[in-house]
Here is the input.
Amino acid sequence: MTSPDNKTEWMYASTNKPDLEQYLLGRRIDDAVDPTQETNTPTDWISGAVPEAGDLGARSEMWKSRDALAKAREDPMFVIEKQRRNAHVDLKNNPLKMQKIRDLLAHELKKRSQEEEKKK
Here is the structure.
């Protein structure tokens, strides 16, 4: 009879290395699975510099990172969160609205303290 540890041993096996047999069969191996492989993501395109014409690897990495940033910017949740943050900054920068909020908070705190005093 097998011990219970042998039945679940496969769950704890290291998945850090890609399955070479899957690679040889032509199946796609995810880059995120292999942490030993270093990914050099050039950030030169941010400063306006473009990789050399002969450096196709750096150029393709540059486009991959640009695509990832474009996907993030086009994400609806990203847009909603950006609008929420902009509205918050606009509210903080408007002194009239901030004073109104402070007055409402002071009134509410005063009201709560009066209710607590009545309960005592």
